[in-house]
Amino acid sequence: MDIIVATIINGILMGGVYGLTAMGLTLIFGVMKVINFAHGSFLMAAMFVTYYLFRITGIDPYAGLVIIVPLLFALGYFTQHVLIRPVFKIERDVREPISVLMLTAGLWIFMDAFALALFGAFYKTIRTPYKGTVLHLGDVIISLPRLYAFLTTVILAILFYLFLKKTRLGKAIRATGQDRDAARLMGINIDRIYNVAFGIGIAIVGVAGAVLMPFYYVHPVVGVVFDIRAFIIVVLGGLGSIPGALLGGVIIGVVESLVAQFITATWTEGIIYAIFISVLFLRPEGLFGFKAEW
Amino acid sequence: MEKERTHAKTWEIDRIAWVTLVSIVILLVFPLFIRSPAFLQFMILILWYAYLTTSWNLVGGFAGVLPLGHATFAGIGAYTSSVLFVHYGLTPWVGMFAGALLAAIVGVILGAPTFRLRGAYFALATIAICESLRVVLENIQKFPFLGFDINGARGILLPLRGHSPINYQFLDKRYFYYIILVMLAIIFYITYRIARSKLGYYLVAGGEEKEAAEALGINVAKCKLIAMAISTFFTALGGTFYMQLVHYIYPRGIVSLDLSFEIAFIAIIGGRGTLLGPIVGAILLVPAAELTRTYLGGSYEGVHLMLYGAVLMAVMVFKPRGLMEPLEAFYRWVSGKFFPQPLLQTEKGS
User: Fold this and answer.
1) pTM of the model
2) Rounded to whole angstroms, how far apart are CA atoms A157 and A248?
3) Can you tell me the ipTM of this complex?
C-alpha cells in the first residue's frame, strides 16, 4: 500500500515538471499556432547552462534561475525574431503554417546534434547539498529535490496565469492568440507579441531545466524524453490550455511511475505512446475539454 | 511562327532526353570501373536515401501533410522479410513483397484516422507511431502465437549464405548498386506517372485546399490513402534492401526518429512535391552527412544530423520551396547562355 502511495506521489512530483515544459509549449502553440518541435532542445540547453553554472561557479540551480531565466528568454526571443519570423511572414495567411513546423524540427535536430558534438554523449549530474535528502511522511518517503521542483511549478503556474489574465501584456498575448488580425487592428504589434510569447515559453522551459538538474541527469538528447511527453501532455490537456497542461503532466507522471514500478520500465514509453495515439484518434480536443484560454 | 515554336519545343525535349540518356549510361557503366567497396557503398547509400525520399514524397510532398515517422515502414519491411528468411527459409525476394504488403496495410490502417488530423497533430501522430513500434520491437523476444524470436533490442542477424543471388545475398556490392538503381528508377517512374495523373492533381488539390477540393467532389481521404499505400509499400522494399546490404538490424537502427527525420528533411530541402527534389536533396546531403559522420561522429551516433538541421533551417528561411527552385532557375540561366537560339524562338513564338 505504501509503495503505491509513494509511487503515485513520486509520479505527481515528476509530472509537475512535465507539466512545466508543456506549459511553455502550450503558450507558444496558443499564440502562434505552431508546435515548437525544438522545445525539448531548449530544455536541454537550460540544463547544460545550469550544469556548467553549478560546476564552474557553484551557483545553486535555484539561485541560478536569476541568470537562467533571462538567458533562455533572450534565446527564445531571438530564435523567434531571427529564424521563425521570416518564415512566418511568407505564410501569414495560413492558420497553422507547416514550414514553421519544419523549421523548428530542423532546429531540434540541429541543437541536439550540436550539443552532442560540443559536450559528448555522457550523462552529467550535479551534487547539490540537498541531493538525495528525503522527507518522511509516516512510511512514505518523498524526495526533497522533487518536492521543491513541484512547488516551483505550482507557484510559476499561478504567476503565469495571473500574468496572462491581469497584465496588459498578458491580455495582448491572449488577444493575439484569439485572432491575430483583429489584434493587429487593435494596434497590437504582432511581431513583438510573438517574440515575447516565444521568449516566455522558452523561459518557462528554462525554469523546468533548472529545477530538474538537482535530481535528474543531462545529456544531449535528454530533450527528446521531455519533448515527446510535452507533446502528449498538451494534446491530453487540450492544446492551448494551461490548467490542462499541468493536469496532463501529472497524469503522465503518475502513469509513468506506476508502470515503471509494477510492470517494467522499458514498457513505460510504449504505454505512454499508446495513450497518446488513442487520445489523438478518439478525443483530439483533449481529455477534459478545457477550453483554450486564447 | 507555329512551326518554329514546335521545332524549338522538340529541340528542348531532345536536349532533356539526351541529358537523361547520358546520365543513365554514366550511372550504369561507372561501377564497372570502381574497385573500392567503400566508394560503392557510399553511392549505394545516396541512391537508397533518394529512393526512400522519393517514396516519402508521394505522401509528404504531394498530399501536403508532414509524415515524420516513415522509418516505421522501412522497419516493417526489414523485419518481415528477415523473419520469413530466418525462420521459414523464404527467400527475401519473396519476403520483401510480404513485408511491403504488410507495410501498405499498416499504412492504410494508420492513415485512415491520422489523415483527419491537422498539421502538427499529424506529424506528432506519425512520430508516436514510429516510436511505439520501436518500443514494441525492443521489448519482444519471442513473437507471441507464431513463436519465432526477434531478440528484442539485440536485433536480428542475417545468416550468411555467401554469394547467393536466390537469397538476395551478394558478396560484390555492385549487385546492390544495380538493384537500388532499378528500384529508384521504378519509384521515380511511378511518381512521374502519378504527378501527371488525376490522382496527382487530386492529391495536390486536397493538400492545398481540402475543403475546396471536397466541394468539387474529390474524395481527398481516399486519394491520400492510395498515396500512403504506395509510399509505404515502396518504403518497406527499401527496408528489406537495407537489411540485405548490412545483414543486421536492431530496432533503434532502423525504426528510429533519426532515419525518419533524414528521409523527411532530404525531401524538404530538395523540394517537396517536386519530381527531382528528393534526388537532388539526397545527392547534396548524403555525401556531406557521410563525411561529417566519418570525421566528426566517430564516437557519437547522430552528429551528422547537425548538418541536416542547419541546412533545413537555412532552406526554410531563404528558399521555403526547397533547392529545386534556385537550381531550375540556374539551369534555365545556363541553357540560356549556351543554347540561346531555340529558347529565344520559344519566347518569340509564345
Assistant:
1) 0.86
2) 14
3) 0.83
